[in-house]
UniProtKB/TrEMBL annotation, chain A:
<protein>
    <submittedName>
        <fullName>ABC transporter permease</fullName>
    </submittedName>
</protein>
<dbReference type="Pfam" id="PF19300">
    <property type="entry name" value="BPD_transp_1_N"/>
</dbReference>
<keyword id="KW-0812">Transmembrane</keyword>
<feature type="transmembrane region" description="Helical">
    <location>
        <begin position="151"/>
        <end position="175"/>
    </location>
</feature>
<keyword id="KW-0472">Membrane</keyword>
<keyword id="KW-1003">Cell membrane</keyword>
<dbReference type="InterPro" id="IPR035906">
    <property type="entry name" value="MetI-like_sf"/>
</dbReference>
TrEMBL record, chain B:
<feature type="transmembrane region" description="Helical">
    <location>
        <begin position="188"/>
        <end position="210"/>
    </location>
</feature>
<dbReference type="InterPro" id="IPR050366">
    <property type="entry name" value="BP-dependent_transpt_permease"/>
</dbReference>
<dbReference type="GO" id="GO:0055085">
    <property type="term" value="P:transmembrane transport"/>
</dbReference>
<keyword id="KW-1133">Transmembrane helix</keyword>
<keyword id="KW-0472">Membrane</keyword>
<keyword id="KW-0813">Transport</keyword>
<feature type="transmembrane region" description="Helical">
    <location>
        <begin position="158"/>
        <end position="176"/>
    </location>
</feature>
From TrEMBL, chain C:
<comment type="similarity">
    <text>Belongs to the bacterial solute-binding protein 5 family.</text>
</comment>
<dbReference type="GO" id="GO:0043190">
    <property type="term" value="C:ATP-binding cassette (ABC) transporter complex"/>
</dbReference>
<feature type="domain" description="Solute-binding protein family 5">
    <location>
        <begin position="70"/>
        <end position="470"/>
    </location>
</feature>
<dbReference type="GO" id="GO:0015833">
    <property type="term" value="P:peptide transport"/>
</dbReference>
<feature type="signal peptide">
    <location>
        <begin position="1"/>
        <end position="22"/>
    </location>
</feature>
<dbReference type="InterPro" id="IPR039424">
    <property type="entry name" value="SBP_5"/>
</dbReference>
<feature type="region of interest" description="Disordered">
    <location>
        <begin position="291"/>
        <end position="313"/>
    </location>
</feature>
Amino acid sequence: MLTFTLRRLLLAVPTLLFISLVIFLLLEASPGDPLGDVPLTVPPEVKERMREALGLGQAWYIRYALWLKQFFWVEPLYWFDGVFGTAFSDGMQRIISFQSRSPVFDVIAQRLPQTLTVVGMSYLVGVLIAIPIGIISAYRQYSWFDQLGTFVSMVGFSMPTFFTGVVMIIVFAVNLQWFPSVYDTTHRVTDWDSFMVQVRQMVMPVTVLALYNAAQISRFMRASMLDNLGQDYVRTARAKGLSERVVVLKHVLRNSLIPVVTVIALGLPTVFGGAIITEQVFKVNGLGQLLISAIHANDIPMVLTLTFLFAILIVLFTLIADILYGVLDPRIRYD
Amino acid sequence: MTDTERQQALNTAELVDETAASAGLTGTLPPDTPQVAGGETRSQWRDVWRQFRSHRGAMIALALFILTILFVSVGPWLWTIDPTYVDIRARNSGFSAAHPLGTDQLGRDLLARLMAGGRVSIAVGLTAMVIAILLGSLIGVLSGYFRRLDAPLMRMTELFLALPLLPLLLLMVTLFREPLSKNFGPATGIFLLIVTAIGATSWMQAARIVRGEVLGLKEREFILAAKSIGTPPHRMILRHILPNVLSPIMVAATLGIATAIITESALSFLGLGFPPDFPTWGRLLFDAVDQMVLYPWRVILPGLFISLTVLCVNYIGDGLRDAMDPRIRGR
Amino acid sequence: MKLRTLLMGAAAGVAFAPAAFAERGADGQVNIIYWQAPSTMNPYLSSGTKDVEASSLVLEGLAGFTETGEVIPRLAAEIPSLENGGISEDLKTVTWKLKEGLKWSDGTPVTSADAKFTAEYCLHPEGGCAQAARYEGIESIETPDDLTVVINFREPRPNPFTAFTGAQSPVLQKAQFEACLGPAASTCTEQNFNPIGTGPFRVTSFRTNDVVSLEANTEYRDPAKPRFATVTLKGGGDAAAAARSVLETGEYDYAWNLQLAPDVLAGMEAAGRGKLVVAFGTLVERIEMNLTDPSSSLPEGERSTTQHPHPILSDERVRRALSMAIDRSLLTEIGYGEAGRPTCNYVPAPEIFASDNTDCLEQDIEGAKALLEEAGWTVGAGGIREKDGARLSLLFQTSVNAVRQDFQALIKQWWSEIGVETELKTVDPSVFFGGDAGSPDTFQKFYADVEMYANNFDGTDPEPYLAQLTCEKIPGPDTQWQGENVNRYCNEEYDALIVELGRTGEIEQRAEIAKELNDMLTRESMTIVPLVDRGRVSAHSNRLGGVILNTWDSELWNASDWYRVTE
């Protein structure tokens, strides 16, 4: 397993480099212009000069090489300087966003906490309610609990968050006035009261997202449990006189987790990617909102850096999923 | 009993059961005894149907689904108002005889729009889902089953997962919108483009899930047994692997329809989808969100249809899965 | 009786008292929501409205505009004019005098050197300054003393109020930005996010594309202002959500630019927590006619170029018929309500420049049909007109926007009534308005027969705006499709009049020429078909007073006068 992991990690480096090149070329080729937002009143000559100031006058391979250097050399150096107080990165150009002319990593660091608290929390809540629901619905297939669970989760999944989010705002923020409709990203938790404010502003986005995640995961959990409950080893285990709890929670659950682990592992990187629509609806302004506004503004350095970080997480989490398969099912071996 | 011992006992029990089960299954394989094969296959499908019929939820869902299909396909023949006809005097009208479901802010008939929109949405949802699932299952099975293909295919999946969706779609639309609409007409051209775009960007999850399942299945005893009697890979996959990964595929498929319908609306919203005079359910829903408080029906109706379709497909999938599982069938 | 009047007078006095005796920062916190979040506080690096307006809370120019378009002094002591000698007789020199005793928010004095530096900063060839056009034509700037700025133009400048006037070209502090000239502009994150200004507020924390927190500037020239101690300017979400947070939940005090369906806005306003404010500027939603052939059967590089005139739209009668079939009042009512006015003018304001052109306001379907018959287009199969075997079929493109899609549907219907077939197309705004020469979907490339969008001009002088339609500004492959004359309109007479306009200094004469130019484009040739004069709609809560919406300057132009209304 260790050699497998090491080999995969080594292989990840060229994969990621290739991915970064593909993303860069994709962004280059796709239509759109970093100056699309500039009002029509600005004359074309001025736009041309602005474009040059952004470094867009150079050939694409030079800009790609520059980005690689900045990402793998300047930014780590800068970070190193920050930690140890050295000055290796002085005078080096960091990755600069087209929109705000500020270092991309500073903005990402600013956004990360919101996304992690809101989207991360909703994912956690989603998983925590989805797994028990999946287990119970499968164990008591076609009971009222199962029927209700199916109904709620399918409706929850087929309703887009741009709809559920607005419904929640109208009901709970406008009519009942229980929760704020605008998320305050500058809020700091210092005591119990400010903690409650934080909780109140998180309730709606977390609920909307958790519902969506839970719907998906619980369906996979249920289906997989059903597959395994009909297996003969379950009958054998029961015949041996194992308690029902042990049979279901130990044998069946463990064998049913593979597709669920896949779904969760693929979902975790999206936590870092943020939830584009939900963040927009509740004005959370996390990484999802950052990515979408950067895409709209054709802010190539920002989009490239964000999607590349995202790619690293995807590669990492698929590896973790592969390792987990081996843990869950010792028969799976990669070497 | 220690854990290892128990596992061992379980494994033995499984081995016995699985071999017996798959032996029974191979016994019904048609090519071995051609004379009986025809009769047996037919009765197998009849079996599936009988089992399916006994699944109440699935039958209701099937009936509703057929009704929905009829509504969107035959409906426009009975209710002949043009969904894009603007009757400005009748705008924002409620339920009436002339407009049973009311009209929108330009006086376009909502019933006609729901019918026309459903046709597009269901077609897009089903086709895109089929593309995504076929692609996903194919890649998943291949990379799970053939060790040699695993690494390249999975790296490709990672690449697709990492690509930012929006610029990719923008690029696809820019490159292909004009040639496609020139060759197939604007509606069909855009349909093909959207279906391929959604299909090509949503197969990855299915592929990962199927691969995970196949990795586990591959080491099971009945597969070893089938291998030992010399089953060739293609039959192995079709006969032994695929039926056993059917349920996650089913789930992915039902969820896929919902995602495809919603994605289509998001695409139209971004100007990448159908031209604005083609109503779709997702688009109707999206356009009405701002007016939710004033005209709640405009949001509720398309939302209801989307949910209904997804629920139906889900229950039909459940029923099919149960009906095709030989262990449940005949119980 | 007398006593009663006195008492009432006293009561009224008390009611108005907060405005008169208030001290700085007495009214606490004000919350502003912009659904597009500001990404920088330096308007020279981004000309997006959101950035310019956010920075106007901190930075100021020498002069600004009022809600009627009149120029008023800000840092300047008075507005230079021919009468007071501030503008020279040959229109080539402008002399500005600064107010005395002005201080930056860090306590240092404001001097003429700061203004001179600002012009250098923006005119630096490698800086990529977004407002460079406002400083164009400046030969030199002299600073004879600390309070005097003398601007020398290369050529006579009838309208000198571009540089240092309005929110787009404020004065920067030399000491702060000295190290940020040219290519260094983008390394100055700290400066760009926290500029030192002379405005009523100063930045305490700036989170790009998210929130700006500000506090009252203790050095502000009026000791009683601003009334608010702190400001939060939040960004993100969409227009509907922003409107809701002011009009329905009351979490915010001011919401910017709410382009929403009129009935939706009216429904929100009915909640009674806030009011909508509307003001009109020069923004006109229009249909542009392509005078060249965009057909995809032409080789790339020849589509939509002057080599091939448009097979249908080159005929003025067809263009006129298309315009006659449109009911502008209905479009306005459905799309903009109170925030729009039907118009036939390319230049709808200021009043002195607006032509009396109202012929197009009446819809005339029959007249349009007759005109098409006269042009030789006769009704053929399926009710679509034909001529010489060609169908009267048009591709109509616009950007993605709910109101524009409604307009498309309505116009398509009217055109079908006169026998014109219309294919609709929508393009993502960032692609449509982005000048990517590689994309076929930009509005400059115009690979469609007609297109719809809105445009306006900066400030109160329409000359540069009218000059966009000269022959030399036709976009084409040789200019990387840059050029503002998207219609490919070319008329020598028009070009000659533009030259004349550039030479004319007298305002009445300028207005006459501008009106003539406007009519040539609209009434006479129907090259540009104006639809709606679009106002700006914003909302403020009932608890916020002093809001005056201004379309000539920043919307937040008088934020120093805003106050809290207590019931």
